[in-house]
Every structure is written in structure tokens, then in C-alpha cells.
Amino acid sequence: MTILGAAIIGCGAIAPLHAKAIAAQSGGQLLAAVDIDVAKAAVFGEEYGCGALTDYKELLNRSDIDIVHLCTPHDLHAQMAVDLLQAGKHVLTEKPMAVDLPSAQRMLKAAEHSKGQLGIVFQNRYNEPSIKIKETIESGVLGPLVCMKGVVTWYRSPEYYKESNWRGKWTSEGGGVLINQTIHTLDLLQWFGGEISSVQGSVSTDVLDGVIEVEDTAHACINFRNKVRGLFYGSNAYLVNSPVELEIVFEQGTLLLRRDCLYLWKDGRETLLSEPGVSGIQGKSYWGTGHQRLIHDFYDHVREGRPFWIDGSEGLKTLELIAGIYSSSGIEKKTHPWQTAPSN
């Protein structure tokens, strides 16, 4: 088996999940960790047995680095990805792929002209309930899809934003709860529903006004071209991180995700279809457990020369949905990076 050399840029909270996923497969080896914080890079490198760097551009000409994981603040994704793709590297970036649509388009263009692939980390597509929902939609076993709703109620304290100066700002985070915490649920809704025809939503800062520039709460009505309607609500104003709730309604039954368990409601009866298994994957439970599966799948696609299915165009769809919510909220009149809403 071909061993793919890897590097991680950004040694923050999400980076250990990537490092552990690389180590958990026989076909990848972490060779370098990069962070502008010298001490943080050194500690990370020592813990995961790899070299430590402070400048990601040192990776560009290294022939032993095949795949680079971007675990940096949002506003750094685009330029790093473009540089790495132009150098022929494969890039796997954490969400969001960029803070605005023009930057995302630059990434897509770079990927089109690169020998490397661009992958986006939407790991919740690999969760068992998500897979079962998608299969049910495509099989038609419960009849046509009618409507959906997604609810995310989490907690982010003022200290969460104060400890990292890039969070809570339009220019560096690209938004608030929409683009950071609830983006995975919005991605699932658009993945399940298909092409979007219109979006109407609103955002507000309910409890963190004066702490952040961006929103901590949002809701939206999403209309799809197939006449399916999706409702969404997300907030960081709760006091706990509740499990994500999904309801997927078909003509002949309903799928419900509650506390990470998937249920089927049909003919007046509720049946458990899947429940969380025991996982050795570390990290916050509400992130889902799909990181390792996604990362291993990306490596398999790269090794076999197959296009990865969650690519830049998939990442762009979710950014367009978020842009539509902001735009319909009148946010384009404020100081934020969004330039374009989804086309109807």
C-alpha cells in the first residue's frame, strides 16, 4: 500500500482528531505540524511524532508531503488552499471552506488546475443516521420527501470568543452560529433536499451582543426545487450543547434524529433504526464521530486516483445557503464579506 505523507496546519482544538485519524490507518503518516505559535507546534509535534514548523510555505516544495489538513482559523483557508493546490498538494480543509463566496471560488479554480484534490470536512454525512436518511430518500421506500427541519441549540460563552481573537468577527470567522456551529446541519439539509430555489431567514445576537460582531441565533425557511420545504433554527444562546435534532417527513413515514438515535415513525408506531455505538474517537460528542471515516475515505480516494465526493463544489453549496440566509436578513448592508446569494 502506498503511504501518503501528511501535514496538519493549525494545532488547535480540532487538529488532534485529524492526527489520530491519520495514525489509525496504515496508509498515512503524519510528517509535519504547522502553527505560527512555535510552542504549540513543538508540543503537537512531540505528542504525535512529527516535525514542527511555523511557516506552511515550507510544505510547498516537500516531495514527501502528499496531503495537507487545514485546521486553521476560517479566513486562512482560502489562500493556504490555493497555494497548496498550485504546488500539487491534496488539501482537506475543515469547514467552512472559506469565509466568503469569492474566496471559495478561488479555491475551486485552483483545484480545477491542480494535480491535487480539494476535500471539505463535512463529517456528519458519514454518521450512520445521515447515511440511512439519504438512502431512504433515494430509495423512495417511504415515498417522496415532503419537508424537513433541523434544530441546533448549543452554548458558547463570552470566554470562548475572547480566548481566540479571530472568533466572532466578520472578517476572520465569516459569521457566527451559521458558519461555525450549525454549518453541518445546514449541509445535511441541503444534501438531503437537493437544489435550493429560495431562502428566507433572519439572524440576531440574542445574548452575546457586545462580545461578538456576528450572530448567535438564526432561523430560516429553505425551499427546494423539488417542492420540499426545510425549516432551520440554530443558536449558541442555550446553556448546554444539546444533540442536534432532525425531522425528515415523507408521504409514508417520518425519520427523527433525537439524542443521536434515529427513529422511524410509521403507522402510529415508533421504531429505533440506529443508536450510537461505542467509539474510541475522542472529541466533543456533538461533533459527531464521522471525522475518522471521512479522513480515511479521502485518503482512499487520493490513493486510488478517484475524485473525492465532498469536494469544493459541495462546500460551495452550503456556503451559498448560508449566504442566502444572511442576504435575506439584510446583512449585506453591514460590514461582512458575503458578496453573492444563491441564484433562484
From TrEMBL:
Reading the lineage from the top rank, the first entry is Bacteria
Q: Which residues form the GFO/IDH/MocA-like oxidoreductase domain?
A: 132-255
Q: Which Pfam families match?
A: GFO_IDH_MocA, GFO_IDH_MocA_C3
The residue ranges of the Gfo/Idh/MocA-like oxidoreductase N-terminal domain are 6-118
PANTHER family in the record: D-GLUCOSIDE 3-DEHYDROGENASE, UDP-N-ACETYL-2-AMINO-2-DEOXY-D-GLUCURONATE OXIDASE
| Name used for this protein in its record | Oxidoreductase
Q: Which organism is it from?
A: Paenibacillus borealis
Supply the source organism's classification: Bacteria, Bacillati, Bacillota, Bacilli, Bacillales
